Amino acid sequence: MTRTATKTALITGASRGLGLALARALAGDGWRLILTARGVDALKPVADELGALALAGDVSDRVHQERLAQAVQDHGGLDLLVNNASGLGVTPLPPLASYPLDVLADLFGTNVLAPLALIQAVVPSLRERGGAVVNISSDAAVEAYEGWGGYGATKAALDQISNVLAVEEPRVAVWWVDPGEMNTGMLADAVGAEEAAAAPGPETVVPTLLRLIRERPASGRVSHA
């Protein structure tokens, strides 16, 4: 993918953290942006700053997914889908032996089914334009961290969806990216603000994502670390 003003990206979870940092970088490269996040009050200033289209809503909601797909169509297609929005689940993080199954089901809806639904909605355009999908994963998908079993299970499922999608869609680049530990609100919710503050900022991950988008290596799992 070369630097051009004609390319369009859809980024979920774009009002803060890694989604916001990547949106700013892509805007600087001349991309047109469709941004979504749950809170309109946080998302609108970002969209105003970057000249982007803001559509606030829950990515796990079917009606909102359809609104995003329509926005892609109205923009003439899509070159990049970034599935960044993610839920953490119960806090404090519980062991699997006592994990509330209804909460886990909702977490799979947000972290697995919602990204797949968006992929299904926009993949015809991605095929046509030789586009790409970036699914934000986690080291919890492959490592056994106490308390992270529920969240990690959803990211492991997202990894496998990405892996199979890469085989089934040879015209679309698919990368599932482990950004490593970042100083975000989600990490603070999981481990506390003090420990989270010691982690690198999400902007440190952006060069890794930009390298993928600009250089278009083979599909696969990518670890920022």
Question: Mind explaining what this structure looks like?
Answer:
With 225 residues, the chain is an alpha/beta fold. 41% of the residues are buried. Helices cover 48% and strands 14% of the residues. A seven-stranded parallel sheet has the order 3-2-1-4-5-6-7, sandwiched between helices. It has helices spanning 17-28, 40-50, 62-74, 101-129, 149-168, 185-191, 193-197, 206-215, and strands at 8-12, 32-36, 53-54, 80-83, 132-136, 173-178, 220-223. Helix 3 packs parallel to helix 4 (101-129) and helix 4 packs parallel to helix 5. Strand 4 (80-83), helix 4 and strand 5 form a beta-alpha-beta unit. It has a single domain, classed as Rossmann fold (3-Layer(aba) Sandwich). Mean pLDDT is 96; it is low at 1-5. Belongs to the short-chain dehydrogenases/reductases (SDR) family. Keywords: Oxidoreductase. This is Short-chain dehydrogenase.
Number of domains: 1
* Full CATH superfamily name: NAD(P)-binding Rossmann-like Domain
- Here the CATH topology equals Rossmann fold
Task: Give the count of helical stretches.
Answer: 8
Helix fraction by DSSP (H/I, runs of at least 4): 40-55%
Family: Belongs to the short-chain dehydrogenases/reductases (SDR) family.
Protein name: Short-chain dehydrogenase
InterPro entries: NAD(P)-bd_dom_sf, Sc_DH/Rdtase_CS, SDR_fam
GO molecular function, one term: oxidoreductase activity
